[in-house]
Amino acid sequence: MLLLTAACVLLTSTLTSAGQPYVNSPYVCASAPLPLPLCQRLSLEERDSFSQASLASPVSSNSSSSPWASQPECHTFENTTQSFCVYSSHAFANSRGISILTTPDRAEYIQQLPAFIQPVALSGVNKQSSPPYEERQLPGKGRGLIANKTLYRGDRIFAHTPVLILDADADDFEYMDEKKWVKMENEATDRLPPRTRELFWELFGEPVLDPVADRINKNAFEIEIDEETHYAVFPEIARLNHDCRPNAAYFFDSVTLTHYVHAITTINPGTEITITYIDPHLPRRQRLRLLSSSWGFNCTCSLCSAHPRLTRESDSRLAQITALTQHYDEWETASSEMALTLISLYEQERLYVPLGSAYRFAALTFCAEGNRWGAIKYARLAIELETLDSGFRDPNVRLMKSLAEQPEKQSCWLKRSMRTEENAAKV
């Protein structure tokens, strides 16, 4: 499976995935956006206001309020008492529809999400009257999306709900019957509305196992819902090709079940819109090997195809970045100069997606030093990029918002001098 999870590395607390091509590898990544114009989006506060209280009262799949189109098809596999069922809704997301292969308990949780019970939660999702891109056939790449207008950091490229969600626990052939599982995947696809089913069949799937399973395995993204891993298929994002230095970032919002893609840097008209399929911190040789073994192509991005001396310098910077990120948890004692060096290295590498974590590191080091304006500057920068990479509800974004507004009232304020005094008292 492909699976894009979203923000591939950084601060220890940032090592999360938000929707990345599903591949069984520790080097495949995870995703986040800036607030859009008010006419195009709900405000962040409105999104956050989707009450968890709405998840409090269970709704039976047999009740009149159930969103499912018909009685779920369920199967119990050998060596387990757990049932896995196919739940489908044609009405979901303004008739885009969805099929979910999961357990009854998890389906009950999902059907109580705002995505199902609060139509306003999906306002503007799955709709684009004037897309900022056009689809073209690209030499050696197949289909790709080309910007037809200038896109600036934070501009939304698209936002879509999944057409399929598959429970990761069910997709475990150690105790599942593979043939039964593939049959359930086919059932889930067959239950989609006709137009949505067409979108699924337009996806590429290298013939290996079964036409449906092959498309899922090649195009699914790893997501988390209620802290449980699932795989999801978003047909639209499959049109985005890989680049080791992408110009777009993505994340999955588990409350609205929406996958967002935004520009992470300026994208000029005529430029291909790209995302990364892997951890961009890997050196060139490892990137090429992973992309070839997992996706079957030889990366020809500008970084991978640069002169060997330039790629060696890039690998050297990446090694230094990796070493510096090991100090993320040491912000109380790390110098702001170290943080600024890390930012400079990321900028040299054009690694804009993980740069948000470096900004957060800098904000915390300046806060620990008691540098008010340094803390505010980098907290604001972190808010922008980490929202684009990790989503509207990311706890690090909330932390940086508090720091940007009242740095002196945060626990990091003057932490270094306090630590120095504590150490002196022990002597």
TrEMBL record:
The residue range of the signal peptide is: 1-18
In what residue span(s) does the SET domain sit? 131-278
Keyword Signal attached: yes
Which keywords does the record carry?
Answer: Signal
Q: By its UniProt entry, which InterPro entries does this protein fall under?
A: SET_dom, SET_dom_sf, SET_domain_protein
The record ties this protein, via SUPFAM superfamilies, to: SET domain (SSF82199)
Record has Signal as a keyword: yes
Give one Pfam hit by family name: SET
Family annotation (PANTHER family)? SET DOMAIN-CONTAINING PROTEIN, SET DOMAIN-CONTAINING PROTEIN 5
Protein name, as recorded: SET domain-containing protein
